[in-house]
Write a structure and sequence with these properties.
Blueprint: H1 4-9, H2 43-58, H3 61-78, H4 85-112, H5 123-154
Helix pairs in contact: 3-4, 3-5, 4-5
Length: 159
């Protein structure tokens, strides 16, 4: 019998979160196996190990920032007047991505504004939430600036 603990100990270091993957150490993989090879993991074993690794990653520092950014995207979508499901999914995904890449920029902007969140334990999550909430708008502004600069380089009037 291979336990989840043994599977988790063999996982790559990227998937070992702050809690390890010790969420279900007593669970054994015995259901649905063929008698010829009892060590071969089944589909459900792989799903269980994968979901446990995802939960362990989400409980780590970067996972919490991604969840905070997704919550920021969800909050922004809920505050819109017209709510379409497609736009909500896009807002949540872009909030999660924006929290990772725009989080440090938002943190620096907060410091420039006099709000130091660097030393606070939830400072990264705060910056991730704000980056997720404003991520789509900041991306639109950045793309507009790049397009104006490209027009200027091509010889256009930049408008």
């Amino acid at each position: 019998m291979v336990t989840l603990l043994q599977f988790a100990q063999e996982a790559p270091p990227l998937f070992r979160g702050s809690y390890g993957a010790l969420l279900l150490p007593a669970f054994t993989f015995s259901m649905g196996r063929s008698m010829s090879d009892p060590t071969d993991p089944t589909f459900w074993d792989k799903i269980l190990v994968g979901s446990t690794a995802a939960i362990a990653w989400l409980s780590g520092e970067m996972g919490r920032v991604v969840v905070a950014g997704a919550a920021g995207g969800l909050y922004r979508w809920l505050m819109e007047e017209r709510k379409r499901l497609r736009e909500g999914i896009i807002a949540i995904v872009s909030g999660a991505v924006g929290s990772v890449y725009l989080g440090p920029i938002v943190m620096r902007l907060l410091e420039i504004g006099g709000l130091s969140v660097t030393g606070h334990p939830t400072g990264y999550m705060t910056a991730g939430f704000l980056a997720g909430m404003t991520g789509v708008s900041l991306a639109k502004v950045a793309i507009a600036i790049i397009e104006v600069q490209a027009k200027k380089l091509r010889g256009g009037n930049g408008q």
